[in-house]
Every structure is written in structure tokens, then in C-alpha cells.
UniProtKB/TrEMBL annotation:
The chain crosses the membrane at residues 64-84, 96-115, 135-161, 168-192, 277-295. The lineage of its organism: Bacteria, Bacillati, Actinomycetota, Actinomycetes, Propionibacteriales. Belongs to the ABC-2 integral membrane protein family. Keywords: Membrane, Transmembrane, Transmembrane helix, Transport. One of its GO terms (biological process) is lipopolysaccharide transport. This is ABC transporter permease.
Length: 306
């Protein structure tokens, strides 16, 4: 009687297999995109912490190098451009012009370079853990932002001694400039991380292109030179969203340090800078959507290539 009341259990392998055959299969793949990244915030935090820690492992000074390196760069720019070349007499506080521009360009190049190799570099972790693969290029962006803060400290000290007096327009310009760079860099990092899986030369191509970016934006030279040399034909130059972002950052940090801000804006800033900036930001978001769709299309083919 007791045996009749107990549920019947599979007694051999065949019956167990028959029972499992009726269980619906559920894909273990995690949710992708921004939603998937937000669902795995703890893993994202661990990835960023691991990348930051790995950079300074075995170093005696550790995080102090994050301050020493930008400080020596800034002092070098002061010596070369102000004392050696005498350019400081023509362009007021040109060292700040260069350093603020290098910060935003460095954020872009570091994010794209690290994001391109992020999936291949973490292939072992990716195969062991179920997580959105977009998390790796996104973590590269956060690591680049983390390493940017010591540079802001050095820049802030320099701005204090040069009498930086920004208005609301300048602050909006800075936020817009960095917004363009972060969205644009993330879009390229997501798309190129897919390319690196199938074409391992992608990382080397990105490294070469990054060398040209530094000279394709008004960083080591003022925009006034571009406007003078290409009179009325600067639209193609300004179609580069990185150039727009650099000019917006200069509008935020460099222009308020000059004695005659109106004259500096008229001579060294293009017309309709904010309009160009918002168009560039919109284009960066469109590119991010396209990059996400490319990523989704090839995501299932990545494991066999890794």
C-alpha cells in the first residue's frame, strides 16, 4: 500500500533519459547589450578592478605613477612649447591647450586599443563564465576613465594658477566633448572587438591609425592654423568627431585661462561649434547602435574562433 502512494521514480538510465527529454531546453546565453551589462554590475566591477590592479602589479610606486606620468608630460610641454620654441608668446597658456587635448585624445585611443583586444585577451574567462561579451569593451572604457582622473588633478592644479574662470557655456562644452569621445570610443571598441576575433590584424591596424589621430586634430597646433591654411574649406576637417570633441574640451579648459576670451573664441574656435558637437554626439549614438547589431550578429560565432 505504501509503495502505491509513493511517486514513481526512474529506475534506470533509459527512464531518466526519457524524463529529461520532456524538459524544455533554455539557452544559457546571458542578456546582451546595456541591459545585460547592468544585470552583471558586480562582474563588471571585478573586471575593472582586475585591469587596474594588473597595470601596477609588482610596481614599487604603484598608483603614484598615474600622477607622475602626466605631471612629467605637462612639465615637458611647458618647457618645449613655452621656453624652447617660444610659442607661449603667440598662444597664451599653450601648454594647457596641448595637455587638455591630449587627455581627451588619450581617452579615445586607449579605449579603442584596449577594447579591440578585450574579447580575445579574455577568451579563457569568457568561455568559463556566462556573461554579456559586450562587458569586456565596456570595461575597457571604464578603465580608461579611471586612469584619466590623475590627469584631471594635474590639470586642475595648473588651471588654479592660471586663473581659470569658466562660465556655464564652457562647462557644457567640456561635458559635451567628453560625451562624444566616450560614446564614439565605445562604439568603435564594440565593433572592433568583433573584428579582432575573426581578423587578428585588427589590433595592429588600430595602433597605426591611432598614431595619425594625434595629428588629425588641433592638439599640437591651434585650430587657427587650420582655418588660415584652408580658408572656407574646413568642413571636412570638422567632420571628424574627435576634432569637434577636442575643440569643445579646449573651449572648456583652455579658453577660460586666456586674458581675452572673446578674441580667443573668434580666432581659435570654429563657427557653430556646439551645433557640430551635438550632431557628432547623435552620430556617435547611431554608430553605437550599429556596432551593437554587428556584435549580436557575430556573437554566436565567436566561441569557435576563440
Amino acid at each position: 500500500m505504501t509503495d502505491l502512494l509513493e511517486p514513481q521514480r526512474p529506475r534506470d538510465a533509459a527512464s531518466r533519459a526519457a524524463a529529461l527529454a520532456d524538459v524544455p531546453l533554455v539557452s544559457p546565453a546571458p542578456t546582451g547589450g546595456i541591459r545585460g551589462i547592468l544585470q552583471h554590475r558586480y562582474l563588471l566591477k571585478l573586471l575593472v578592478k582586475r585591469e587596474v590592479t594588473a597595470r601596477y602589479t609588482g610596481s614599487f610606486l604603484g598608483m603614484l605613477w598615474s600622477y607622475i606620468t602626466p605631471l612629467t608630460q605637462f612639465l615637458m610641454y611647458i618647457f618645449i612649447f613655452t621656453l624652447l620654441m617660444g610659442r607661449g608668446g603667440n598662444i597664451e597658456h599653450f601648454a594647457i591647450h596641448v595637455f587638455a587635448s591630449i587627455m581627451v585624445v588619450g581617452l579615445f585611443t586607449e579605449t579603442v586599443a584596449a577594447g579591440t583586444r578585450s574579447i580575445v585577451r579574455n577568451s579563457a574567462l569568457l568561455q568559463k563564465s556566462a556573461m554579456p561579451r559586450e562587458m569586456f569593451p565596456f570595461a575597457s572604457l571604464l578603465v580608461s576613465i579611471y586612469h584619466l582622473w590623475p590627469e584631471f588633478v594635474i590639470l586642475g592644479i595648473a588651471l588654479f594658477f592660471t586663473g581659470w574662470a569658466p562660465d556655464l557655456t564652457a562647462l557644457v562644452a567640456g561635458v559635451l566633448g567628453y560625451g562624444i569621445i566616450m560614446v564614439f570610443a565605445l562604439a568603435l571598441a564594440v565593433a572592433l572587438s568583433v573584428s579582432q576575433v575573426f581578423l587578428r590584424d585588427t589590433g595592429n591596424i588600430v595602433a597605426v591609425v591611432n598614431n595619425f589621430i594625434r595629428f588629425g586634430v588641433p592638439m599640437m597646433y591651434p585650430y587657427s592654423i587650420v582655418a588660415e591654411r584652408f580658408r572656407g574649406h574646413t568642413d571636412l576637417y570638422l567632420a571628424n568627431p574627435i576634432a569637434d570633441a577636442v575643440l569643445l574640451v579646449q573651449r572648456c579648459f583652455w579658453v577660460p585661462t586666456t586674458s581675452d576670451q572673446k578674441a580667443t573664441i573668434a580666432e581659435s574656435m570654429p563657427d557653430h561649434l556646439f551645433t557640430r558637437g551635438f550632431v557628432a554626439l547623435a552620430g556617435a549614438f547611431v554608430l553605437l547602435v550599429i556596432a551593437q547589431r554587428i556584435f549580436n550578429r557575430f556573437e554566436n560565432k565567436m566561441p569557435e574562433r576563440l
